[in-house]
From TrEMBL, chain A:
Keywords: Signal, Sugar transport, Transport
Keyword Lipoprotein: no
Record keyword Signal present: yes
Signal peptide, first to last residue: 1-23
InterPro entries for this protein: Bact_solute-bd_prot1, SBP
UniProt name for this protein: Multiple sugar transport system substrate-binding protein
Coiled-coil zones: none
UniProtKB/TrEMBL annotation, chain B:
GO cellular component: plasma membrane
Organism: Streptacidiphilus jiangxiensis
Name the record gives this protein: Multiple sugar transport system permease protein
Organism placement in taxonomy: Bacteria, Bacillati, Actinomycetota, Actinomycetes, Kitasatosporales
Domain ABC transmembrane type-1 residue range list: 92-304
Membrane disposition: Multi-pass membrane protein
Compartments where located: Cell membrane
Protein's UniProt keywords contain ATP-binding: no
UniProtKB/TrEMBL annotation, chain C:
rRNA-binding listed as a keyword: no
Gene3D superfamilies, sorted: MetI-like
Keyword list, A-Z: Cell membrane, Membrane, Sugar transport, Transmembrane, Transmembrane helix, Transport
Bilayer topology term: Multi-pass membrane protein
A Pfam family hit: BPD_transp_1
Similarity annotation: Belongs to the binding-protein-dependent transport system permease family.
Major localization class: membrane
Transmembrane helix as UniProt keyword: yes
Residue spans crossing the bilayer: 25-47, 93-114, 126-145, 165-183, 204-229, 262-281
Protein's recorded name: Multiple sugar transport system permease protein
GO cellular component: plasma membrane
């Protein structure tokens, strides 16, 4: 029976091969061997589409391994770094990298899942931990409070502000160095810009692919509101603040008529509108300017970022690393060393090696990531200023306002809530007869059901 | 594919129970052992990747499973939750609308086209080649391409085309829900119709010419010949393609996932399953919705079988 | 004009076409169709290729230009390099080739057993297989994913290995059905003759059945390859490592942050292999696909 043998062999080889593949994909776990060598897999290595950062990462790994001959760092370049399609399944089955990448919004879930290692006892090894903004480290602490044990290390963050076109401000007779600081001023400036005619839009906002809900949240924060109750069990945005967000947009769209006819916008749309020179203002963070600059060759001189209107609070998002609970102590310490080297030391690594960035024509001068406070922050800002290759003054008002603002993270079940928020945003921007209160009530009911669902 | 004929064939096979298998017990055993060895690979793959997941789907629809791996029985709670989710109804509306448009555009157009093409005596391979080209593109690449064509401002291809003939630009995916779904159907038809047109062409070529001649002698005009000869002669393939089309479009995922990204309420049922499972970590609801979709599909196929059997009896 | 000598008569008779009015109508329809097909099926591809040659400003320019005014062929090189298209295409080829081999081995063996060896419960097995045709893969994608992530008993994970594509592809009831139907049509006497000559079932399959089955093997092969090449949701879930992804998944995962013109160039490159493959094998593919569908 040749076939039997053949198929048996095929099957057996198959199983052995796949077993080998499984083994190798997990090679990091228990990667410490008797001779003191440690090997770690680390998430979010820049993918091939980011050739520059990727080369830098590879160079940094080589330099780091030279400094620490007993450590081997293996990058995982899966993209997106945190793919919602597989994040939870990988987490549940313990298949995360030894040092795995997370968004701020994952922090609490991951701690609750019991799949991450408690790194509190190694906290003293984290470089400059005390100078990292407490709001950011708390995200990775048990219970989200300063007293909880530490489970992860933040490495990057963004805060939303108001991106505006200096060119259009100038044309409309507004001061291009004085962005609006309240929503009423946003409205006045938008009217002025729209008056220019030829299709110029004063202000635009998202309403699709979850970005609408995301901006609703940010604008709610800016007015002093909050998305969910402190226990995370029910929606808290159906109040005067939430109503104000929707009413304001509805008025801008249909009464003032300054938001343009095109709606249903999502992430790249606002950037593209800004790039084409037809948009006055949008809510966004400084890094969007580099996208516009890189993708559409728009000069940095034409754009600037002001603080989030209202200046009470803004939405902060970001990312960081956590540790697989299967890691050995040696792996955790090696991981911390690597993160210190690559992400937490001003003057080196992927984000803070300013001379290298400047030489490679990567943007230097963006006020983000904005990890530190106090002396470290000041020292880093000074180091960056020396190599800045964009007009740093264009972020001055944004940077000046941030320290006094509350930095609020995204709500639990963020993506599910945002998907519902899109609908409210879309309705106020497309339906002249939309009833903001009714939309808010619908949104709230859907949000409560999502939150209850997550609890079970 | 071809569920109906399959089911019939199976019934035939089942009925045609093998004519008494003679021979000793030993030989019988050996024959069975050999047969099952030949079957083993396929059966194992079916068991692991089809049968077991099917059962597991039903089980999971009555369970709560979280990302930490805790599992408990929750009775009908997942079903209740899904039925009360406004997105559920919206997803069915979208899927239903998609199916409806796909019937008009994706079903009727290829057939009409095939009927016309069958009359063309020149450059036949040109037509076949071209209509089949999109089928050979990686669907994700094609979907991104169309998303780009649908660019809402005037830099988009379709808007430029409207401008070229003096029409105002359209928001396409970002205008009304109906138009957005229609946009998805247009893409879906473009990329899929090559296969259907070729199948229709093949079946049209099987129609005996005498039938047309006889009809012509009876004084039947062009349209009457189509109606009284072409359609009845291709009825089997037409009705099969109808079922396939409906079952296929009910499962639409790639189009809304890539092209609209669920904007404008264009989330389809399968896309909602995906969202439940992978965006909202809600495996129970995803499984419950999967079971519901399955029931609907079975109902469709069952109804189809019943109708076609009745038509046969008449 | 040899084309006019069609032996079979169709909807419109030869005589009708020969009349002056008929001839005018025919040629009008003909040229309209030629133009329509070019517009519907060639122009989008042209637009894609020319878009790949445009500069970043030109690709968002209003109104768009028909020709890239200052062609930037570098976009194609950038796309090839940055999106690692070579690897994506290679991966997909590997998956398609493997799926083809596995389906040919396992599905042919199974169909042969069901058709000619007819074991007890054979019909039950066939029925259970055909029942999966009613269960679309998309519906059971979640439990199938969880299963592939943690196989029963062994607890192996197939994620990011070719097995995650190859093994599930074997569970293809339609191909088993096509093969079985074809094998059914092979006269039993032939097999009996082989048996008298002392050939075992495997010899019979190899030297009697398979040589007669070339057409159906061709059809099944095309289905196997095209199936893998077009699949999206399943590989999206099971191939999360960039280095293991298919063309479809890779394009989807890597498109964020890639400039539009480079991305369009990438789409053009990604479409080349299958289109070239098709142009080479068009006769076989089209014959196979129609035959397969008609058989069903």
């Amino acid at each position: 029976m040749r076939l039997r043998t053949a198929s048996r062999v095929a099957l057996a080889t198959g199983l052995v091969l796949s077993a080998a593949a499984c083994a190798s994909s997990n090679s990091g776990s228990g990667g410490a061997s008797a001779d003191g060598k440690v090997s770690i897999t680390v998430g979010c290595m820049p993918p091939t589409t980011q050739a520059g950062p990727r080369a830098n990462w590879i160079a940094d790994v080589a330099a780091f391994e030279k400094l620490n001959p007993n450590i081997t760092v293996k990058g995982d370049d899966s993209n997106p770094c945190d793919d919602p399609a597989t994040f939870n399944a990988k987490l549940a089955s313990g298949k995360m990298d030894d040092v795995f990448y997370t968004y701020f919004t994952d922090g609490a879930n991951v701690v609750a899942s019991g799949q991450a290692a408690d790194i509190q006892q190694y906290a003293s090894q984290i470089h400059g931990l005390s100078d990292i903004q407490p709001a950011l480290t708390n995200i990775y602490k048990q219970g989200g409070t300063a007293s909880g044990d530490l489970y992860g290390i933040p490495k990057g963050n963004y805060s939303l502000g108001l991106v505006y076109s200096k060119t259009l401000f100038q044309k409309a007779g507004l001061d291009p160095n004085k962005p609006p600081t309240t929503w009423d001023e946003v409205e006045a400036d938008a009217i002025a810009i729209s008056k220019l005619g030829n299709g110029d839009v004063g202000y635009a906002d998202y309403s699709a692919a979850n970005t609408g809900g995301w901006h609703f949240t940010a604008e709610l924060y800016s007015r002093g509101g909050t998305m969910v109750t402190p226990d995370g069990k029910s929606a808290a945005f159906d109040d005067a603040n939430g109503l104000a967000v929707l009413q304001f947009l509805h008025k801008m769209r249909f009464t003032d008529n300054v938001m343009g006819a095109k709606q249903g916008l999502q992430y790249n749309d606002l950037l593209q509108m800004m790039a084409s020179g037809k948009l006055g203002m949008y809510v966004g963070d400084p890094v969007t300017l580099t996208t516009i600059h890189d993708q559409y060759n728009v000069s940095y001189d034409d754009m600037a970022v002001g603080p989030m209107p209202g200046q009470a609070a803004t939405l902060v998002g970001g990312d960081g690393y956590m540790f697989n609970k299967k890691d050995t102590p040696a792996q955790i310490q090696a991981g911390i060393k690597w993160i210190n080297y690559e992400f937490l030391t001003s003057g080196q690594g992927l984000n803070f090696n300013y001379p290298r960035r400047a030489e490679q024509k990567e943007p230097v001068g963006l006020p983000e990531p904005d990890l530190w406070t106090g002396a470290t922050a000041a020292a880093d800002a000074a180091a960056m200023a020396k190599y800045a290759n964009m007009p740093v003054a264009n972020f001055a008002t944004y940077v000046a306002a941030l320290p006094s603002m509350k930095l609020l993270v995204e709500p639990p079940q963020a993506q599910a809530l945002y998907a519902q928020g899109d609908k409210a945003m879309d309705a106020v921007l497309t339906d002249p007869n939309a009833d903001p209160q009714k939309l808010l009530d619908t949104f709230k009911a859907a949000a409560n059901s999502i939150l209850a669902n997550a609890q079970q | 594919m071809a569920t109906i004929n399959l089911t019939r064939a199976v019934a035939r096979d089942l009925r045609a129970a093998d004519p008494a298998r003679r021979g000793g017990l030993r030989r019988k055993l050996r024959r069975n052992a050999t047969a099952y060895l030949f079957l083993a690979g396929a059966v194992l793959c079916f068991a692991v990747f089809s049968w077991y997941p099917m059962i597991r789907e039903v089980i999971m629809s009555f369970q709560y499973t979280n990302f930490a791996g805790d599992t408990k029985w929750v009775g009908l709670r997942n079903y209740q939750r899904v039925l009360h989710d406004p997105d559920f109804w919206s997803a069915w509306r979208t899927t239903g609308l998609f199916t409806l448009f796909a019937l008009v555009v994706g079903y009727a157009v290829p057939f009409a086209l095939a009927v016309v093409l069958n009359e063309i005596r020149h450059a036949r391979s040109y037509f076949r080649l071209l209509v089949y080209l999109p089928v050979m593109m990686p669907p994700v690449a094609a979907a991104f391409l169309w998303k780009w064509f649908y660019t809402p401002d005037d830099s988009g291809l379709f808007n430029a085309a409207l401008h070229a003939v003096g029409l105002p630009s359209v928001q396409w995916l970002q205008s009304s829900h109906t138009l957005a779904v229609l946009c998805l159907v247009l893409f879906s038809t473009w990329i899929n119709m090559g296969g259907t047109v070729l199948v229709y062409l093949a079946s049209l070529q099987g129609i005996p010419g005498e039938l047309y001649e006889a009809a012509e002698l009876d004084g039947a005009g062009l349209l009457r010949r189509v109606w009284h000869v072409t359609v009845p002669q291709t009825r089997l393939i037409l009705s099969m393609m109808l079922l396939l089309q409906i079952v296929g479009t009910m499962q639409v995922f790639l189009e809304p996932y890539i092209i609209t990204g669920s904007a404008n309420d264009t989330t389809s049922v399968v896309y909602l399953i995906y969202q439940y499972a992978f965006n909202y970590d809600n495996y129970g609801s995803a499984a419950a919705l999967g079971v519901l979709l399955l029931l609907v599909l079975i109902a469709f196929a069952g109804g189809y079988l019943w109708l076609s059997r009745r038509a046969e009896e008449e | 004009m040899s084309a006019f000598v069609t032996p079979t008569r169709t909807l419109i008779s030869q005589a009708q076409l020969a009349r002056p009015l008929g001839r005018t109508a025919y040629w009008t329809v003909f040229w309209v169709l030629i133009a329509l097909f070019a517009l519907a099926f060639l122009f989008p591809l042209y637009w894609m290729v020319s878009g790949g040659f445009k500069t970043p400003q030109q690709i968002i320019q209003t109104p768009p230009s028909l020709l890239p005014t200052s062609p930037a062929p570098g976009n194609f090189a950038t796309a090839w390099r940055d999106m690692d298209l070579g690897r994506l295409i290679l991966n997909t080829t590997l998956y398609a080739g493997g799926a083809l081999v596995f389906q040919l081995v396992f599905d042919v063996a199974a169909a042969y057993a069901l058709s000619k060896l007819r074991p007890v419960f054979g019909n039950g097995v066939l029925f259970a297989m055909l029942a999966t045709l009613m269960i679309p893969t998309t519906v059971i994608v979640l439990p199938a994913y969880l299963t592939a992530n943690d196989l029963p008993f062994t607890h192996w994970s197939l994620l990011n290995t070719p097995w995650a594509i190859w093994l599930p592809s074997v569970a293809n009831a339609f191909n088993v059905f096509l093969l079985k139907r074809f094998f059914d049509s092979i006269p039993t006497e032939l097999l009996a003759a082989a048996a008298i000559d002392g050939a075992g079932p495997l010899r019979t399959l190899w030297s009697v059945v398979l040589p007669m089955s070339r057409p159906i093997l061709g059809v099944v092969s095309i289905f196997a390859v095209v199936g893998v090449w077009k699949d999206f949701l399943w590989p999206l879930l099971v191939l999360t490592d960039t280095s293991t992804q298919t063309v479809n998944v890779g394009i989807n995962q890597l498109h964020v942050g890639v400039p539009e013109n480079v991305f369009v160039a990438a789409l053009a490159i990604a479409s080349v292999p299958t289109i070239v493959f098709f142009l080479f094998f068009q006769r076989n593919i089209m014959a196979g696909l129609t035959a397969g569908a008609m058989k069903g």
